[in-house]
Amino acid sequence: MTKRGLLERIDAGEAVIHASGYLFEMERRGYLQAGGFVPEVVLEHPEVVEQLTREFARCGADVLLAFTYYGHREKMRLIGKEDLLEPLNREALNIAHKVGKEFPDKLIAGNICNTNIYHPDDKDSQKQIHQIFEEQIGWIAEAGVDLVVGETFDSISEVEIAVKIAKEAGVPLVIGTVLHRTAKHFRDSENYFVDDLKRVKDLGADIVGLNCHFGPQTMLPLLKEVTTHITDGRVAGFPVAYRTTPTQPSFGNMRDRELCCPERLPVEGISFPVALDPFTVTRYEMAEFAEEAVKAGALYIGTCCGGAPHHVRAMAESLGRTTEASKYSPDMSKHAFYGDDESLKDYNKNFAENF
Ligand SMILES: [Zn+2]
Q1: Cα-to-centroid distance, 180 and ligand 1 (Å)
Q2: pLDDT value at 235 more than 90
Q3: Ordered domains of the chain (ranges, CATH)
Q4: How far apart, in whole angstroms, are the C-alpha atoms of residue 317 and residue 307?
Q5: Which residues sit with Cβ closer than 5 angstroms to ligand 1, an ion?
Q6: Cα(first)–Cα(last) distance of the chain, in Å?
Q7: How do residues 309-339 score in pLDDT, each as one tens digit?
Q8: Total Cβ atoms within 10 A of residue 323
Q9: What's the whole-model pTM score?
Q10: Ligand 1 center to residue 213 CA distance, Å?
């Protein structure tokens, strides 16, 4: 049986679950350095990337993303390892394909992202951006994928370059963009962000939306604005798994007022990126987001930074799905204090309030 494609699924009204969060997860596990955030782990410990991809798949991700986020030429230059650029990109795509063999109905995605060198007045940087996307899309097209995901763009002009080049891969294109905390327009634009997203769609992106920076709580209202104007379901939302709020809407600037020792943080007082742990959302907040986003008409949903397999599983289950890992989803009926299994001791059950 042939695999059903991304747009076939979305256009049939089916949600597609995207799982990412590789950078932060690899950093936590000790395989990647915060700051530069370059995924050298792809070459150094491919088995770790492979296993995380497998965990996401078991937990209900429909999309297996090649971990090339921040694996582009500019980032490799920054750490003095441009020679590893091509091997890293090719290996990341191999890993996604390898796991894909175990899960034949999953979609394999190539990945491109913000370059951090875009400047509206700098023609030279725009030329470099062209080159960055061209070479990455070339490797993606050679490996063969079911879709390309472009992520975390804050400048609409950079998105335009990405769309033009990524379309050449000849597969559906998903574009995730980020807003900064104070504005409803992209960094290089004064338009209402949804108008710009509509234009990106007209340029050839199949699915457009928001990813990263905002957690489920602050992304959802923005996503609903998008789905008010783009009503064909082809809208993406994959938030960070952190509890952003109206007063702290974006994870890049969060402050932890309970923290013992703000002077210990790498950027004093700022929890981003390595002290966000107390803000991590529960799986239930991601489940709530998934249900609400899909109801609103955003059918490409998932996780970004901070997201982990348990979040993905709860999102899938909130949409009525049973994942391979659902056999281990919580069942408190056999818990010593909160359970109701007949064989459990009343001595403990009656003590539950004091537990
Ligand atoms: Zn992110």
Answers
A1: 13
A2: yes
A3: 6-322 (3.20.20.330), 331-355 (no CATH)
A4: 16
A5: 212, 304-305
A6: 52
A7: 999 999 999 999 999 999 999 999 999 999 9
A8: 21
A9: 0.97
A10: 6
